[in-house]
């Protein structure tokens, strides 16, 4: 059950990796904060600027949208790193906190997007979720380039 719970937490973070920056080790975090995740799976935290650039390309963001999303992703990364380093939280509470942080970032990003971009963004997240689930249930992941997530018509 713990493996499933860990994978669920990783899924949440993986979804945010594509668009929200799943978050490990913010620059402002204490040195011990990154060490707290070393017992579990490593969390990959792409640069918020690179993530915003990827979203800009996939969703056709304008400069103002891109700048706002960079700020959202940076904040998300810092909050998640702080939650991971918070030793006062139980594993369950930490997962819940990380999920809430990810949901808040997704909501903030959606507020910046146009309705058409929101549809594309939702399709990208769903594609990432599907790919993650197929890759972790023993079957092979769906074929296709993950960069094509926004070009698949929402499927």
Automatic annotation (TrEMBL):
Chain coiled-coil ranges? none
Q: Report whether Nucleotide-binding shows up as a keyword of the record.
A: no
Q: Does the keyword Aminoacyl-tRNA synthetase apply?
A: no
Per the UniProt entry, the signal peptide is 1-21
Where is the segment annotated Disordered?
A: 27-52, 117-155
* Keywords for this protein: Signal
Low complexity compositional bias: what residue ranges?
27-42
Renumbered to this chain, the Basic and acidic residues biased-composition regions fall at 127-137
Q: What is this protein called?
A: Spy/CpxP family protein refolding chaperone
């Amino acid at each position: 059950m713990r493996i499933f719970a860990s994978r669920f937490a990783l899924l949440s973070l993986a979804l945010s990796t594509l668009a929200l920056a799943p978050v490990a080790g913010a620059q402002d975090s204490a040195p011990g904060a990154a060490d707290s995740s070393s017992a579990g799976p490593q969390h990959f935290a792409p640069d918020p600027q690179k993530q915003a650039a990827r979203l800009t390309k996939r969703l056709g963001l304008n400069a103002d949208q891109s700048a706002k999303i960079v700020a959202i992703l940076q904040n998300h990364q810092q909050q998640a790193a702080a939650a991971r380093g918070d030793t006062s939280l139980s594993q369950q509470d930490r997962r819940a906190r990380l999920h809430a942080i990810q949901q808040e970032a997704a909501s903030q990003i959606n507020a910046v997007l146009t309705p058409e971009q929101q549809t594309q963004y939702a399709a990208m997240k769903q594609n990432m979720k599907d790919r993650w689930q197929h890759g972790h249930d023993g079957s092979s992941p769906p074929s296709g380039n993950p960069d094509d997530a926004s070009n698949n018509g929402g499927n």
